[in-house]
Amino acid sequence: MDFSWLNCVRITLLVLLVAAIATACFTLPVEKMLKDFLVWVELDLGNWGPLVLAVAYIPLTILAVPASVLTLGGGYLYGLLLGFVSDSIGATLGATAAFLVGRTIGRSFVISKIKDYPKFRAVAVAIERSGFKIVLLLRLVPLLPFNMLNYLLSVTPVPFWEYVLASWLGMLVTKKAKAKMEKQLRDAIKAKEMAET
After folding, report:
1. Which of the residues 92, 124, 152, 187 has the least number of beta carbons within 10 Å of its own beta carbon?
2. Which among 145, 7, 169 has a CA at the least distance from the CA of 67?
């Protein structure tokens, strides 16, 4: 790779962004902020709540902040069907956004981080042969964290729409299971509240 000031500036900005995100994740009360966000969504947004919840996945996924509080909150606040739909759309939008960031401005950074992992090269070769199937399998059997997988897949030759469709379908199974668990949690809390009154 030839040296250029533009590449130097891009890499510097990306490193600063990653450092800022890491610092924020370790120093800010992210979990509390997400819980407060869920309370705001429930109390103040009415019918717009599920849409705002889905859109909230985008910055969280790009910044690699675990969105499990949103996932659990979606099912708890809106029940099985609406919580599932909101979480599914949100996770797919977030995964797509992170994929696009990794494929464009973050590409050189992601490549620099994975070049020492020969196992990932094997995954890239498999994706070149049958991208949709491999992405679907990686989503169905989450061997890697969700946020990391978005960026790793961004530097593979998988076509954009295959990535989006395979990610959405693969995440449907896990989102459905989580939404059902959230509904059971909600029902248990309501039953306990009724028993106490």
Report:
1. 187
2. 145
Q: List C-alpha distances in Å: 43 to 46, 49, 134, 140, 183.
A: 7, 9, 41, 34, 19
Percentages helix, strand, coil for the chain (3-state, rounded to 5) are 85, 0, 15
Q: What is the pLDDT of residues 75-129, one digit of tens each?
A: 777 777 887 888 889 999 999 999 999 998 888 888 887 777 777 777 777 888 8
3-class SS of residue 86: helix
Domain ranges of the chain: 30-196
Distance CA 190, CA 66 (A): 27
Check residue 162 and report its DSSP letter. Answer: H
The CA distance from 147 to 64, in Å, is: 5
Contact at 8 Å (CB) between 80 and 63? no
Phi, psi of 2 (to 5 degrees): -75, 145
